[in-house]
Specification:
With 170 residues, the protein is mainly β. Helix content is 0%, strand content 54%. It has one domain: 7 Propeller (Methylamine Dehydrogenase, Chain H). It is built from no helices and 16 strands. The two termini are 20 Å apart.
Length: 170
């Protein structure tokens, strides 16, 4: 689930129906946005500055980009088995953890994408918009990859066994 505090809309990934449910926070009315039925949507994030919503589709290696004003959908190719997505609204960069290809796809919200290699089986991702650092929990290498959001260079920090989630306090 993701929230756009600017528009007061809540976005819920409905994996079983291949949709995103949009809830209006003021009225609790809802609408549905139909995604690729082969996609198996796994994760969602919102950029409140651009009013774009990003949905990672595990089975097909894509991210759907939803225009929050019109609900129009476009699609971007990313790595294999995208399982997590996070947004830095300050830099308009979107980070997609691709579990199957051991990469993070860095999407420039205005233009294209680049790929950064991380540890084995990245499972979760978090962005610190203050420091412009991205943290990726790598399930099978028991570490966290730290990506510099300016240069896409990486460092690795060892953690406990099988890290599955990550959060930060900016």
């Amino acid at each position: 689930m993701a929230v756009n505090p600017v528009t007061n809309k809540i976005y819920v990934v409905d994996t079983g129906t291949f949709t995103v449910t949009v809830i209006d926070g003021a009225t609790n009315t809802r609408t549905s946005i139909v995604l690729d039925t082969a996609g198996n949507p796994q994760a969602i994030a919102v950029n409140p500055v651009t009013n774009k919503i990003y949905v990672a589709n595990f089975n097909v290696g894509t991210v759907n980009v939803i225009d929050g004003a019109t609900n129009a959908i476009s699609s971007l190719n990313v790595g294999t088995f995208p399982v997590a997505v996070a947004v830095n609204p300050v830099t308009n960069r979107i980070y997609v953890a691709n579990q199957g290809s051991n990469t993070v796809t860095v999407i420039n919200g205005a233009t294209n994408a680049a790929t950064v290699t991380v540890g084995t089986s990245p499972h979760a991702i978090a962005v610190n918009p203050v420091t412009n650092k991205i943290y990726v929990a790598n399930e099978n290498t028991n570490n966290v990859t730290v990506i510099d959001g300016l240069t896409n260079t990486t460092t690795t920090v060892s953690v406990g066994s099988i890290p599955m989630a990550i959060a930060l306090n900016p």
